[in-house]
Fold:
Amino acid sequence: MAAPALPRPHRDDLRIALAGLLGGLLVWGVGLGVRGPHDPLVLWHGRPPVLAPLAVMACCELLRRTRPRTGLVIGVAALTADTVTQGNLATIVMFTDLVYAAVLYTPPAPARRVLWISGLMTVVWTVVPLALLRRPEALLIGAAVGLVAFTPAATGWIVRNHRDAAEAARLRAEQTALLAETDRAQAVTAERARMARELHDLVAGRLSAIAIHATAALSLDSPATGRDALAVIRENSVQGLAEMRRLIGILRADHEEPSATPTLDGIGTLVAGARANGLDVTLDSDHAERLPAPVELAAYRIVQESLTNALKHAGRGRVAVAVAERDGSLAVTVTSRYDAGDGPRAPGSGAGLVGMRERAALLGGSFEAGPEGALWVVRAAFPLVEGVAA
Structure:
């Protein structure tokens, strides 16, 4: 089985290695060395002993980003070999870069170990020579070790922390943008649902009455009955046009609801309009004069939609509307005759019940509608809490 190929070095690492090698050759060419030829640490003299650690260190620079720990281990060996020659300043500079890269590009735990080991070496090479030589100049050894090992490690740790903080800030910004986009999409969906409810509640009742009376006018030969039907059609057309203008006002207004928002006081007008459309409607209203505006609007719309449904679907008989305040909530009940065998007098989409249920849910209330014996019953209850929004 073939060994895995080493990853290609980064382009910047190639430049750093080449610059270090050329710089070291230039330093060697002009005859500059870290130590003199008579230094007791110098065990090997000549060209190969100086250039070999330089070449190895330059090769380690190729691994500074892809294999930083391997490069550092080999670099330590090359630096050790360099210390027993006249030395090359470029070799030492490249080693400091390897220490920096080992802290910056390795996982957190190894990076922390490099930082601690370099700090410990600095302390040891400060204390031990001072204790053995008992001369202030011995402190320079610890300073040199700290400059070569601990300083680049600490710099790499600082840069790493700043980089991690910047990455965390970027992720937070992306999450914030994602949440903002999600909130915007939800707000658009909620507004579209609200406008769909408004459109249905404002137009469906009027158009249903127009359809029913137009059918009656076309099917009867009596001129008087036809005129009455046309009068009702005209009245519903005018009212529907006024309500459409109000809806356009809502869309163009800077605030959510204009001052003409329907209230419970308008339920009497709804009932009168239903009677004009041919329904036998009674109203029983018992509530405080001022209730939260969203609750009044929702109750008004539910009564409006219930009367529309009664006009389209209910059997012959009385329609009873009751609005009462009880136990900290507003209860709305609308009952009408139910005959499963009769078809609707005007087509419907089924969106009315959905809209009523949504209005109740948005205010934390309850809603139910269905047959109970010979009656179709609509019940809704809204908690009377200030600050709810429809």
The CA atoms of residues 5 and 66 lie 12 Å apart. Residues 139-219 form the longest helix (81 residues). The domain at 263-342+350-390 is CATH 3.30.565.10 (Heat Shock Protein 90).
